[in-house]
Backbone:
């Protein structure tokens, strides 16, 4: 029984990685376009992350945690709100790391990569253990 649960977690994690790659593509395209338009790095990272999170909800609720999405509209609304809270936590991590990196003269693209790693693990934990549990 424990082996089956571990296998299912790995599959969910792999689907989450796939959804994250899709959302990250949206995020990075927006981020890079805004940087090219001379938008400050922290603002560009916030805009990219925000559009990426919208894509992530669509993918996560339909392809990753589809069996755990609430059917009851009140419970589903609660899940969406918790998803937004997890996104805001990830956004705070992203903007904080990119902003700090920029302030210390680190290339914003490098800082963004560090932010991606930290926010990915944080939001996966929240979504898997709290939101879609």
Residues:
């Amino acid at each position: 029984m424990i082996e089956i649960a571990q296998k299912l977690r790995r599959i969910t994690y792999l689907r989450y990685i796939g959804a994250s790659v899709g959302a990250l593509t949206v995020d990075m395209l927006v981020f890079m376009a805004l940087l090219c338009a001379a938008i400050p790095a922290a603002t560009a990272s916030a805009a990219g992350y925000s559009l990426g999170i919208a894509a992530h909800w669509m993918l996560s609720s339909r392809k990753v945690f589809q069996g755990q999405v609430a059917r009851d509209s009140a419970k589903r609304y609660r899940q969406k709100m918790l998803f937004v809270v997890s996104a805001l936590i990830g956004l705070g991590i992203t903007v904080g790391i990119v902003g700090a990196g920029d302030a210390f003269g680190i290339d914003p693209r490098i800082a963004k990569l560090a932010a991606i790693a930290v926010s990915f693990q944080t939001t996966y934990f929240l979504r898997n253990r709290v939101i879609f549990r």
In short: The chain has one domain: 2-131. The helical segments are 2-36, 41-64, 73-103, 108-131. Residues 2-131 form one domain. The chain has four helices and no strands.
